[in-house]
Amino acid sequence: MSFTNGVIWVVEQQGKRVAFYTLGCKVNQQETASLMKLFRKRGFRVVDFKKDADVYIINTCAVTHTAAQKCRQVIRRAIGRSPAAVVAVLGCYSQVAAEEVLSIPGVDLVVGTSGRSRLVELVSEAMEKKRSGEWPAKGINAVEALDGSLDFEQLPLPDDPRRTRAFLKIEDGCDQFCTYCTVPYARGGVRSLHPDLVQERLSELVCAGYREVVLTGVHTSAYGKDLGGGVNLPRLLRELVELPGNFRIRLSSVEPAEVTEELLELLATSPRLCRHLHIPLQSGDDEILCRMNRPYTAEEYRKLFHLAREMIPGIAITTDVLVGFPGEEERHFQNTFNLIATLPFRDLHVFKYSPRPGTPAAAMPEQVAPPVKDRRSSCLRRLADELAASFARRFVGETMTVLVERRSRKRQGWWEGLTDNYLRVFFPASQRKSGVRGEFVPVRILEVGPRDELQGEAVEN
């Protein structure tokens, strides 16, 4: 939509170059891929962000202070590379700090986490008016308020033929309001894509050749709570696994309190569902979990972990851990370390707490010193390496189904791919010289290589 006289700009920008830079989560990455498709449809040519372009689009993150700082650095880099280009900034950082973004000289357009479907029109108007000198030097704030009337915004599906895995966004927003987190302010409340549309979109992806579809969202396990009628994530999965085609489904992050026995039973019984759950822990200390407004205890998490392993042999469980939360003393951290050390995680994502403006935790006393956060983070990262290696070693000697993604760039003469339980596997290309990319191949695991990567040999079905 135009900013002048309500005119819709009909855009055919044949040959104009647009470059994208994405910071943050899988949702942001999926949304950027969708926006690339929108721009290509209007004649734009997508180029590398390091190259000269007519338009630079930065999709931002606000989850940590470091992420916001990186956003500003990338914005300034784009402005410095081509001052005449249109620089558009969107995403979570834009949503919560629009005026801060606009204060950077050279930013032309700020869009938040909604209204992205009109980005091509907004950018095209900015290009025309910047060329004629009509565009305001300070740029335009096009961020929309995130009120209760907001609907799920559908963007085009990705269409990269080089990929075997696609992300399908089924939910947006979060109502949890963890005390450290800006996401509810940046994304608004929970909004779900109707189950019929999820089925339709997944079928399109499978028909396009994708063999793994990752169901993603901001609070994926809250799927359906806004739709009523008993719609929820397990019910959706029951419908999706019945669709025709050669594919598997992976879930993105699911909250501990929403991992039910019904969900675990589905993962245990459906070969189309990957044996992998990312279940954020954040802390292994009950006092800190309470201060974070996380709705579970360390003991409840431990029981859930063991139940998942009991019901789903070989499951990979990955997690997020936040160190240095306000008031986290050494005893609190030790409780977290001790809990994690007893649980055979596939991987840990360790983050250092940073105060985010407007969140309750930012105003809490007893902020933890940066050197203490650094030490605790390093300690958990070392533990993560040990746990990952131990998990990988369990599968030596087994034959596992691998979705072959590509010829390895790191190892000449090898194929590489991913198992359903999130292990990267390499096997010699001499065994399968062609025609295996995007196929499910049984591979006997022979050894664990560097970085917990498995090496094996393809076997006949």
Can you put this structure into words, describing what you see?
- The chain has 461 residues and is an alpha/beta fold.
- The protein has four domains: 17-141, 3-Layer(aba) Sandwich (Rossmann fold); 146-274, 2-Layer Sandwich (Transcription Regulator spoIIAA), CATH 3.30.750; 277-394, Transcription Regulator spoIIAA (2-Layer Sandwich), CATH 3.30.750; 399-458, OB fold (Dihydrolipoamide Acetyltransferase, E2P) (Beta Barrel).
- It contains 13 helices and 19 strands.
- The protein has helices spanning 26-41, 65-81, 92-96, 98-102, 119-132, 183-187, 195-207, 233-240, 261-269, 286-292, 298-311, 330-341, 370-393, and strands at residues 17-22, 45-47, 55-60, 86-91, 109-110, 140-141, 165-169, 171-172, 191-192, 212-216, 248-251, 276-278, 316-323, 347-352, 399-407, 414-419, 424-428, 440-448, 454-458.
- The strands form five sheets. A six-stranded parallel β-sheet has the order 2-1-3-4-5-6, with helices on both faces. Strands 15-16-17-19-18 form a five-stranded mixed beta barrel.
- A hairpin with a 6-residue loop joins strand 15 (399-407) and strand 16 (414-419).
- Helix 12 packs parallel to helix 13.
- Mean pLDDT is 93; it is low at 1-12.
CATH top-level class of the largest domain = Alpha Beta
The gyration radius over C-alpha positions equals 23 Å
Total count of strands: 19
Percent of residues in beta strands: 15-25%
Question: What is the overall silhouette?
Answer: globular
| Main sheet strand line-up | 2-1-3-4-5-6
Global mean pLDDT: 93
Number of domains: 4
Low-confidence stretches: 1-12
Instruction: Report how far the terminal alpha carbons are from each other.
Output: 55 Å
CATH architecture grouping of the largest domain: 2-Layer Sandwich
Helix % is: 25-40%
Largest sheet: 6 strands, parallel
